[in-house]
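Obj.: predict assembly geometry.
Materials: sequence records (below).
Method: joint structure prediction, all chains together.
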Amino acid sequence: MTIFSDLESEVRSYSRLWPVVFDRAENSRLFSEDGRTYLDFFAGAGALNYGHSNAFLKQALLDYIVRDGVSHALDMLTVARRDFLETFQDVLLTPRGLQYKVVFPGPGGANAVEAALKLARRVTGRQSVVSFTNSFHGMTLGTLAVSGNATKRAAAGVPLTLTTAMPYDGYPGIGETGPRHLDRLLSDGGSGLDRPAAVIVETVQGEGGLRTAGAGWLRELADVCKRHEVLLIVDDVQMGCGRTGPFFSFEDAGITPDMVCLSKSIGGFGLPLALTLIRPELDVWKPGDHNGTFRGVSASFVTGAQALRSYWSDGTLEKSTRERGERIAAALGAIADDHSEAGLEVRGRGFAAGLRFATPGAARAVCVAAFESGLLMETSGAAADVAKLLPPLTISNDDLDEGLDIIRRCVGAVLARSK
Amino acid sequence: MTIFSDLESEVRSYSRLWPVVFDRAENSRLFSEDGRTYLDFFAGAGALNYGHSNAFLKQALLDYIVRDGVSHALDMLTVARRDFLETFQDVLLTPRGLQYKVVFPGPGGANAVEAALKLARRVTGRQSVVSFTNSFHGMTLGTLAVSGNATKRAAAGVPLTLTTAMPYDGYPGIGETGPRHLDRLLSDGGSGLDRPAAVIVETVQGEGGLRTAGAGWLRELADVCKRHEVLLIVDDVQMGCGRTGPFFSFEDAGITPDMVCLSKSIGGFGLPLALTLIRPELDVWKPGDHNGTFRGVSASFVTGAQALRSYWSDGTLEKSTRERGERIAAALGAIADDHSEAGLEVRGRGFAAGLRFATPGAARAVCVAAFESGLLMETSGAAADVAKLLPPLTISNDDLDEGLDIIRRCVGAVLARSK
Amino acid sequence: MTIFSDLESEVRSYSRLWPVVFDRAENSRLFSEDGRTYLDFFAGAGALNYGHSNAFLKQALLDYIVRDGVSHALDMLTVARRDFLETFQDVLLTPRGLQYKVVFPGPGGANAVEAALKLARRVTGRQSVVSFTNSFHGMTLGTLAVSGNATKRAAAGVPLTLTTAMPYDGYPGIGETGPRHLDRLLSDGGSGLDRPAAVIVETVQGEGGLRTAGAGWLRELADVCKRHEVLLIVDDVQMGCGRTGPFFSFEDAGITPDMVCLSKSIGGFGLPLALTLIRPELDVWKPGDHNGTFRGVSASFVTGAQALRSYWSDGTLEKSTRERGERIAAALGAIADDHSEAGLEVRGRGFAAGLRFATPGAARAVCVAAFESGLLMETSGAAADVAKLLPPLTISNDDLDEGLDIIRRCVGAVLARSK
Amino acid sequence: MTIFSDLESEVRSYSRLWPVVFDRAENSRLFSEDGRTYLDFFAGAGALNYGHSNAFLKQALLDYIVRDGVSHALDMLTVARRDFLETFQDVLLTPRGLQYKVVFPGPGGANAVEAALKLARRVTGRQSVVSFTNSFHGMTLGTLAVSGNATKRAAAGVPLTLTTAMPYDGYPGIGETGPRHLDRLLSDGGSGLDRPAAVIVETVQGEGGLRTAGAGWLRELADVCKRHEVLLIVDDVQMGCGRTGPFFSFEDAGITPDMVCLSKSIGGFGLPLALTLIRPELDVWKPGDHNGTFRGVSASFVTGAQALRSYWSDGTLEKSTRERGERIAAALGAIADDHSEAGLEVRGRGFAAGLRFATPGAARAVCVAAFESGLLMETSGAAADVAKLLPPLTISNDDLDEGLDIIRRCVGAVLARSK
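Observations (raw structure tokens):
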């Protein structure tokens, strides 16, 4: 493994938790080159909602490559791009009564957020943005400024300005009244909070400890934004594409954000793709105002469109995720109950779930123990105090149960040790 | 085509110059769905140095997908990642005597630049950065701040701070003495130019009108940086991977930048990948200080490694690019001579070449006429006054000559019209 | 009056409320050139705590000018400067057990705050600052950034960055737990609130609606700052110099700020002077790091030293302010009781008092009516909903009662009208 | 002297060069408390153009204080304010055909510049400002950002943004073509220089080494500003009020700035006052958009108006300054000629003159020697390489000659020593 440590920057992280060289992968299983099998409750940090090497997507991709489909095309018109757009319209937007225009802002989630912030500022003529405690939106200068993690913020090397973090739902003390607090500050000409261009929010904080925003809280937030003519951006990069059940994680709350950021699983096969959806009235950009080399990745168009057709033409996957999401929650609840003295807290929604540990280091220890038992899962939260489950939505029931059982055992072992 | 105009943001640009739907592509040829063939002097804005659907890369990619190679892995250890790193070391770094550590900063060139700026600020404890007139480094907040284009800067919606643009080589009046001017400002305690963390420069300004920095100018710049302990970053996203002849565009100048940004053709097949190379001493990052979902794209590792093996194990491609680059320059020089009254100027280096037109609109008109003649090429520069040639390095001599001939004819027609 | 409207910018404000030309003034009385007399409950917005043309100060000033004392001296050593410093030390610091070094940062309160923020950032190496809702600290770029008023912030023409406003004591919803909320945000590595260099606070918000911070709240704030190694700056520009009773407004809370900003009445006679007091350990500045032309105004040194000797050598003035402050509060309370249906709220502390009106425009109407009755007082708060009393501390009981009676009558008339 | 070192911050500076306690002063003479007399070629850094304790001004001030004239009045209407405005209009503006509205922005020069920048940004809707190498405009956050001194900039503790320094007239290499260079950058859509709200310039750089801008250079700069609709601000804080001859230092260049900043000697007697003059069309402020406690200092109104009447009702002072300015230049030229091997350079204009020394430390040594000979003068420039003469305009010929002679002798002694 010396080439990794010799040649790569010390900034690498996952390889430290899982010091093994992976070779192949199928659905919820990864295979290392030394012949071991790992159950994947990590799923590419949410980029592999349809599992590894998904057979439907794989075939579509192979066909496209074999026939020399255009592989790279910036924002040129291609058959693959058209097919993706039509499928996106027909399978997702139209049935949900959603009207959005699509921006392909660049290959990753940070590009989707950068584009949303940029357009929000352009449209409103305002410069500041409100985000939330424990948010995570990316590592570029614009997206880091709306992210909460102090260590990553400090790594910017420059002050991150023009953003203010408000308390997220459930934040101790005042989280639940967050939207009302924001309303008051925006209504008060002396509050010192400049009226922002936009509010950016995750419905579940994937990197921020699996905290969740309630439907009522989100609706109140949407109302406050509307009242003050502030744009509401939902960053659905990790929670979209069905991770919590519905395709868009905000569907259950009954809100319609002004902008939506998608990436990770939108390409389906794990290849980069990102979208920023914007209300048509907001499309004030002139040609070329925002550009970039990898704005449309044909391979991702092909597998992304296939994923929409295979999994979102009917409600099967959504129903499965909702039902099995409850199974996950129940299993985690049972683990928490087994160790009531330890004050475990179940977090998350759907297939984005977590167990929060009061004991420092326990969550990490559980993940290490899980790895030794053949299960991949990571921690979440600035304090790394949450063991996070993010299985592929396509995982079999057997694999899901096996994974949950490993977690149960590992938690037991770790808590026993820490007594 | 209505789905494109109905559903996509007005920000799309290339599709306006080339209103045709492309389907397949091979090396230097694109095929539209209505059966027409286009000669490609655009090459994915430099992302397709090895041509479309390159057979070596295609086979490696198909093999990898067929055998269910891990498609997505963040910064986990994989066989594909290791192979890429080893090849990068063996084929590129070692033979050139270069010692760099590799950061995979995210999927696109902007990520490579964001990471470089971030690390430069962190290492030096300074916050400002010097860039150059007519530079282009990306569309995220951090990279836009070091880019010169006024329209794209304005689209940010916020002031772009902590950066100062110095005159690039050849900039009217003072460009040639740019490094000396910078030296004086940094030596003068009253100049008002804060000592920067880094200077970021392109050796040829791909988006900035194909202006070129001379070898002496670059060496002087490197010396000034060294003297003032300012880091030198070469953004080789467009000019690297052999575009001007050598793999790294700065090789001929004999300088060793502190950091190098690569993307576009580094993945080989047109799929996203980006690298930031850093001098080992600069690797002060802690694990996870910078992260992201698409930091290692396995498909790009596979095709990128194959491209290095196929094209950079010996000097064949480099020699060809240098020799044929002179052919391009000669052909453009002949066109300029044919129209000496029009004051055409030949720009660029190697396979990044351009013709600068004094008449407003002429360069665009040439590109439009070229498209009508079956040739794809775009303009460059904030004033769009340069017709830019960026053919695949693997183009056949026949295709190259055909394209140059089309340009010759189109320039003649456009200039005749504008008289 | 046309010269005023012809030649002065529209930005002038007080002259609109009081459209009369003043000529002379004595203690709590102003005399217009047309022979009318006005009772002054405005006192130069707090710059005239010792009244107009105070006889002790006037004589000292005349003596100094007559004998050709140095009038202007930057930070050169002068007899006047020495006398001021010695008096400041002997009369104020030593008896209170306070150890501060003195910075003369420039002529006005904004200079005192700019210097404090500058030094706090320098000492801590951090860049952001926490202020409070409805704060007011000045009109320069640095001080406006920590001020809450939206209109004045917008007038900056640039975004005001590196500052975050926290809820002040009593702010609806969460103000009372403000320090605890700040503590939590600073303890939470994911909160998105960068650890600030300093917290800047007013004990009573003179421009922000006469809101007051309780002693316990201030102590808790001081504790939080200490725990997180954040510097605590008290802006005592308006509330210092005895306005609320004790010389320093924070004395009753039992806290010792790391820095204190003084101006307005510190010069005594209404001439400019400003001081920034800093804990000795914070004095990291090198000679000349901060400079300016009017850092030491000799005339103000002379009258300022005399004021300290005349009014702060014993506790007479402080006692009077406390006792008569209660009389003011009682009188305002009686007015509020008289109109219990109107929901009037008594605000402030000591000789900085206010009546908050729920009815928009009522506070302004009271001030207009007061002017017509020969009393000068202004509104406070971003919504101008507080009628503010700021009489000279040296006002006679008769004048004080007369003024309070005018207010009683004006409030009655205004509320009767608005029914 | 221990009270000064014990109680004052280390930031104090002049007292280190002149470690003596001054007591009284008359015109060009300062008297220390130990009975020594000093000739003043410093004049309060330009705040005492009419000398110390000027008899005309002194009498007016005493009369005003004796009769209990209103001493402090914010922007209330007063007899003193009206008299100042009328005199300013009649004596200065009308005879010169200048149309400006007056802002009283606060007590010091920094306030005048802060207000100008604020208004320029507000009017244009643009945020950045162009300043010049070696400029000095103040110590507040907004004014420091347009100042060149690296040490003072670093003391801000935050990055100073939204400003770019262009080469001043005579700056090595490109200074002479500065306006043309600015024109090119503003005309080039790819230059990376955002179109600024304003350009701020000093006609002679009082703190920046007494560099001067030529009349042609200033006119070209004014033309460039006009062409690009950028506001031109002349900071005349130090060079205005007749320091270079005419009242406004830009009169000889024949330009009419959009805004002019005045302070220092505008109050006449050394008491604080500042003005921002703005073209009437720029007066877009609403009442109270900018405010402050010491916006109108009555004492300064009284002495300032008297100074205008006494010294600017006819051309006597201007003529004297021009003629004697030439005498100063000739004397300095003769000193330079005497030491032609030392490469002395005469700098400045009118009564703002300097000798630039190539030898590090020589300028400071000359000032130290001068002090020992009873002459006060300071260095100028970031490198402190210029010995600066700034005598009162009212100095007698004898005192002027005596001072020049001391300088001649001190230069000789210092250069002899350094051989």
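Conclusions so far: The CA atoms of residues 91 and 308 of chain B lie 7 Å apart.
To do: check interface contacts against the pulldown list.
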